[in-house]
Amino acid sequence: MVYCFTSSVIEANTTIYVGKDKFENEELIKYGWDEDFHADNLSSAHVYLRLKSDQEWDQLPAALVEDCAQLTKANSIEGNKKDNVTIIYTPWSNLLKNASMATGQVSFRDPKKVPTRTILVPTRLNPTINRLMKTRTVASADGLFAEKEQHLSELRAKAREKAKEARKEEERLKKERKDEKYRREHAYEDLMKGDGDEEGGGKRSNQEGWDDDDFM
């Protein structure tokens, strides 16, 4: 099973996912979102932070990163007993998983392109862990799958809407260019037509009341 925690250290509550063991870690690796944040540097549960659309993984509030780090430490048999534990974190999309790796094990795709970051956890903070434990719920693999499918569906819908808007803008620009070309090509004709109107406007005909004798 996968545990879900709610962090309330910032204004918008944020969901944190923690694998119970290495097998649940595999579910988190499989069903993570591109926006997920991964914190792990020990033989421990993987910890994922479900980022909001306006959050960047490398600009997160320190208190939120601290919650993730404390959960990582607390869910490591080795790390939970130690002080001064270093936790490494990176976006989910930077995780690399292949068939040669052990269950629950991951590496990084491109550490140079997507740098990882670290946080030092001097000691376990029981008030932090107790606060998070009060929010713990359980998520199934099916639930994680459904959440990701819904997320991908929403992303596809946004992409279609964006493409639609791009097409409309292209059509607008195309018409604008066509109209401008027409104006340039017919500018001289319009000018001559205007001059003709002015010349015609200075003449009077018999219809205006002239008498033929006026010309004698």
Structural notes for this entry:
The protein has 216 residues and is of the alpha+beta class. It is built from four helices and nine strands. The protein has helices at residues 22-31, 62-74, 126-133, 141-201, and strands at residues 2-7, 14-19, 37-39, 47-49, 85-91, 95-96, 107-108, 117-121, 137-139. 43% of the residues lie in helices and 17% in strands. The mean pLDDT is 77. Strand 1 (2-7) and strand 2 (14-19) form a beta hairpin. Strands 8-5-3-4-2-1-9 form a seven-stranded antiparallel beta sheet. A two-stranded antiparallel sheet has the order 6-7.
Summed up, the helix count is 4
Could you say which overall geometry the principal axes of the C-alpha atoms support? elongated
Query: Ranges with pLDDT <50 over ≥5 residues?
Result: none
What is the end-to-end distance? 114 Å
Which strand order does the major sheet show? 8-5-3-4-2-1-9
Give the overall pLDDT as a whole number. Answer: 77
Number of strands: 9
Helix content: 40-55%
Supply the helix-strand structural class.
Answer: alpha+beta
Question: DSSP strand (E) fraction?
Answer: 15-25%
**What value does the Rg take, in angstroms?**
34 Å
State the major sheet.
7 strands, antiparallel
H/E topology pattern:
EEHEEHEEEEHEH
